[in-house]
């Protein structure tokens, strides 16, 4: 059966999809996360030492276990986009996008001509090693792969109306941590919450799924209720640390 891409999965889901970040360069955590019931993972190449080769292996393992796979690329240079897309990932998050020009450049590299500049690679894994009809390979790449930009600075969020109008952009991610750094304000500040509402409103009006990252299940439920379509909860290293800390504390009775 043809696999459903993440962009289509988001638009067809009747609930917020839950995922987590993958930072450990091993395949075993992927199986654990799949068994736990996550909908997707995000391979984090920006804040973890995960290579292109590992991202490829992790994509194969995760999709085989029933997970969708997004990759947060190391930067917005575009150097990883072609090879990751040819590896068959379900979507890309481009970090620290601040302008329309940056968003346009990133999106064009993920779209086939005439809408973009992505090269043809039908004999890659994304093309099922040449077994997928060319028309289906092109359709899947343009229609079902998530092409999302991360807005993480106050000025970028304020430009959301312009950035989210970039042709071919079909996802946005709000980075609350860096938004706090750039603004110097806590997430609870009314002006920050007003920015969040603004972004969600802009995304909703354009039919663009919005995502974010949180630390706890309670925060994930709040995000879903607020209108986010996909949420990352914690990450593999933090989940391991929390469980390990709890086990030791329980042994010592503290």
Structure description:
The protein is an alpha/beta fold and 254 residues long. The protein has 12 helices and 8 strands. The protein has helices spanning 6-12, 28-36, 52-64, 81-86, 100-108, 134-143, 154-158, 160-163, 176-183, 190-206, 217-226, 236-252, and strands spanning 17-22, 40-44, 68-72, 91-94, 146-151, 171-174, 210-214, 230-235. An 8-stranded parallel β-barrel has the order 1-2-3-4-5-6-7-8, surrounded by 7 helices. The longest helix has 17 residues, at 190-206. The radius of gyration is 18 Å and the shape is globular. The chain starts with 5 loop residues before the first helix and ends with a helix.
Tag the structure with descriptive keywords.
8-stranded parallel β-barrel, alpha/beta, globular, 254 residues
State the helix count. Answer: 12
H and E order: HEHEHEHEHHEHHEHHEHEH
The radius of gyration computed from the alpha-carbon positions, rounded to a whole number of angstroms, is: 18 Å
Relative helix content: 40-55%
Class of secondary structure makeup: alpha/beta
pLDDT < 50 stretches: none
Biggest sheet layout: 8 strands, parallel, barrel
Measured by DSSP, the beta-strand proportion falls in 15-25%
Spatial separation of the terminal alpha carbons? 51 Å
Mean pLDDT: 96
Number of distinct beta strands: 8
Strand order of the largest sheet: 1-2-3-4-5-6-7-8
Overall 3D shape:
globular
Question: In short, what is this structure?
Answer:
The protein has 254 residues and is an alpha/beta fold.
What is the fold's blueprint, element by element?
Elements: H1 6-12, E1 17-22, H2 28-36, E2 40-44, H3 52-64, E3 68-72, H4 81-86, E4 91-94, H5 100-108, H6 134-143, E5 146-151, H7 154-158, H8 160-163, E6 171-174, H9 176-183, H10 190-206, E7 210-214, H11 217-226, E8 230-235, H12 236-252
Parallel strand pairs: 1-2, 1-8, 2-3, 3-4, 4-5, 5-6, 6-7, 7-8
